[in-house]
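Protein Record: Sequence and Backbone Structure Tokens
======================================================
Tokens: labelled as protein backbone structure tokens, with as many entries as the chain has residues.
Question of interest: how does this chain fold, as expressed in backbone structure tokens?

___
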Amino acid sequence: MRVLVTRPEPDAEATLERLAALDIAAEIAPVMTRQTLSARLPPPEGFAALALTSTNAIRALEDLGALGALLAKPVFAVGDRTAHEARQAGFDTVTAADGTLESLTTAIALARLSGPVLYPAGSHLSGDLAHALAPHGLLVATVPVYEMVAETQFPQTVASALAGGQFGAVLLYSRRTAEIFCDLVKDILPPEERRKLPVLCLSENVAKPLLEAHFSRVLLADHPSEEAMMTLALAFAREQTGS
């Protein structure tokens, strides 16, 4: 069985390596590419903590030369992967939420911070952290520091493989990735073929655009994490191969 990995680099390569360790063949075709924006961040002294919902924010801060001035700030990361990358980048105090915006909101609210939160984010947001924390009396300064630019088409080899039913499944990690994937395959896969193609999703939120686009073999990870996605991929591969 060969699966298609759609997430952006460098995360796609990391997923490819993890799949290979599970003896699952895979191919990478990112549907988005990160571009760092010319952002002007406010002085870090005015903030009690940093909120991170993506490893891409850490990479963008490094591109902007803004990472060093922020390393002393406590970080609240949306999940374990982002928390790990934050520690690798040099942040000392990192709290990992449970992989969702709701859990991140709860973690920040329970910390009883003495000042506002700086939220370096992408230009496309799937949730509003500032709105979520407002009832807790916390101000959030959301600063777009990167943009995920959608691809306009798949490489011809990938498009042909999709049309020919050569992928046993597709891995999707974000709602926007799922939306772009649906747009890219609308002229490649008719509805009857979409119903046959298994799609492995990080969460229900990721799955919604796929269901609306007539994908019916939608499988969800038990938890919004890379570990849960690998568990799902392995269980699915074993089911397909009978091993």
In short: The longest strand covers residues 140-150. The chain has two domains: 2-31+151-241, 34-148.
